[in-house]
Amino acid sequence: MISQKPMLENRRPPYDGARTACPACRTLARTVKTEQLTEIVREVTYRCSNPDCLCSFKAQITVIRVLHPSLCASLPDALSPIRR
Questions:
Q1: How big is the CA angle at 57 (ends 52 and 63), to the nearest 5 degrees?
Q2: Residue ranges of the domains in the chain?
Q3: DSSP SS3 for 66
Q4: CA-based nearest residue to 33, from 63, 56, 62, 64
Q5: Which of 22, 23, 44, 79 sits at a 20 to 30 Å CA gap from 32?
Q6: What letter would DSSP give residue 25?
Q7: Could you tell me what percentage of the chain is helix, strand and coil, using 3-state DSSP and rounding each to the nearest 5?
Q8: Beta carbons of 14 and 31 less than 8 angstroms apart
């Protein structure tokens, strides 16, 4: 008989993070750590999944433009739409 793990209510699956290619070998790199630097900038640490490479590198994710303003929250001044 196969035992089943009990389901945990209100539990989300673990966040796998944004993925990108390793700059050294072009293999999939996975998110190791993220840090919010400002309201619109996040620094992400990646590690290559290729066991022969294992390169680690940092990248920044920046909000550059809001396509549709939020209906429930105000935007940081840097992202507020320019009114003409």
A1: 140
A2: 20-64
A3: coil
A4: 56
A5: 79
A6: T
A7: 5, 30, 65
A8: no
